[in-house]
C-alpha cells in the first residue's frame, strides 16, 4: 500500500498563502520620525478610547415624577435619638390615621446613658452634624456627584464611652426600627410611660407635672427605608439643647417614596423634607400643649423615580471607531508630510553628495589611472 506523505508540503503551501501583498524588505525604509509618530498615535488613541468609555459609563440621571399607587407597601423608620431625661420618665409611641394598635409597629430599645458627651464622642457627632449641614447647603451644586459616586455613611455612630461618670444616668437613648403603614402618622416622645387601650393609648404624664422636664435631644439617625446614594436625611446630626423646661419640639415631615434604578442594582427607599417648630408650653401664658418631641409625618401622593439614561450602544461603537479611524488617518497624513519635508530638505543633499562620492570612487580605479613612471628608453626600444 502506498501512502501519501505530502501533508506537510500542503500545509507549508497553505501557510505561504497571503491575501495581502507585502512590500519587500529592501524597499522599506524605517525612520525615527515614523516610529515617533506611531508611538504618539498609539497613546492618543488609547487615551481617547478611555475617555469615550468613561463618558459612556458616566450616564445621565433622570428624575421622573409619577403617582404612587403602591399603598400596601410598608414603611420602615430608623430611629436613634438621645433625650436628656432618664428612661424611667420617658415614653415613646406612634399613632397613624388607621388607629392600628401600637404593638403592631414594633418596639424601640431604651438605653440609660449620659447626655454630656466625652470629647471623642463630641468630635464624632460634630463631624456628622457639619457634614450633613454642608450637604444640605451645597446639594444643588454636588447632587450629581452624590448620586453617582455616593457620599459614604454620614451616620457615624458615637463611639462607646470609655470612662463612666460617677453619677446616675441622666439621659435615655431610644433606638430601633419600626414598621409603619404608608399613611400619615405621629411618632412622639413625651414624659410618662404610655398606657395602651383598645382605641389608642394615653401617657401618664400627670405624674410628672412637678418634675423638671428637659427635652433637649440629639438625633443620631432618623430615616425612612434603606439608605441610598444621593439621599440626604436632614434631621440626622441635629441637636437641640435648651435650659428651659417643658419645651415642645415639632417636626413636620413630608415623606416622598423614591425608586432608584442604577447599574445592576435597584432600591426602593424614601426621602423626606422637614419643617421645625419649637416653643415653651406654659398654660398661664396661653401656650398650651404637651411638652415633648413630636414627629408628624405624611406621605406624598407622588413618588420619584431615579434612573440612568445611557447612549445607544450602536452609536457608542460607531463614535469609537470614527475616533480611532480619524486619529489614525490624521497621524498618517502628518507623518507623510513630515517625512516628505525631511526627505526633500534634509536627506536629499546628503544623498546627492553620497552618490557623487560613489561615482568618483567608481572611476578612480588604481589599475586604470596613468601614473608618471620613469621607464628607460632603451627598454622601450627593445
Structure description:
By secondary structure, the protein is α+β, with helices and mostly antiparallel strands. Helices cover 32% and strands 30% of the residues. It has six helices and 14 strands. It has helices at residues 7-16, 32-57, 119-137, 139-149, 313-363, 377-381; strands at residues 60-67, 74-83, 90-96, 109-113, 171-181, 185-191, 194-197, 200-203, 217-224, 238-240, 247-262, 265-280, 292-299, 302-309. The strands form three sheets. Strands 1, 3, 6, 11, 12, 13 and 14 form a seven-stranded mixed β-sheet that branches. A five-stranded antiparallel β-sheet has the order 4-5-2-9-10, with no helix packed on it. The chain has a two-stranded antiparallel sheet with strand order 7-8. A hairpin with a 2-residue loop joins strand 7 and strand 8 (200-203). The longest helix is centred in the C-terminal third of the chain and has 51 residues, at 313-363. It is elongated.
| Radius of gyration computed on alpha carbons | 43 Å
Could you give the distance between the termini?
84 Å
Mean pLDDT: 77
* Number of helical stretches of at least 4 residues: 6
Q: How would you sum up the global shape?
A: elongated
Helix fraction bin? 25-40%
Secondary-structure content class: alpha+beta
Describe the sheet with the most strands. 7 strands, mixed
Uncertain spans, ≥5 residues at pLDDT below 50?
none
* Order of helix and strand elements from N to C terminus: HHEEEEHHEEEEEEEEEEHH
* Range of strand content: 25-35%
Quantity of strands, as a count: 14
